[in-house]
What does this fold into?
Amino acid sequence: MAQLHAECERNFRRLHRLLPNTQTLRAKLRLSPEQGGPRGVELTVVEVTRYTSLVHIVSVQQGPDWLDDIDIQVRVYRDAQMAEVVEWCRDRTIPWALCEPSKLYARDEKWQWNLFLSELLSYGLGCTRQLTNTSQ
It folds into this structure.
């Protein structure tokens, strides 16, 4: 559990570097491997409450048939400075603790989804650095 908390804290910092205005409803960022390219990922703040925000992350253009579109919800806990994946594919909500074995969940599914978020945000940070360097 400590590793998951640490990863959620790192994801908060990564997300905050990409999208610092998570307290602004409909704040948006588009990450693309090439500037103005047709493919990429879009991050949008879809809910803001007193202590949290909800960021919706979707792929902008559909990929190959064998690759599912990215469609996840990330809860940003501004007071605790953590960000965690809470839903994906619009129909699967991830409980904080997977206490009961279920055919629907892998034992480490929450960990896997938050590692995916980590890789996605790290890639996004690399894209923004790359675009910043090429536009100078």
The two ends are 42 Å apart (CA to CA). Residues 2-121 form one domain. The helical segments are 2-18, 109-134.
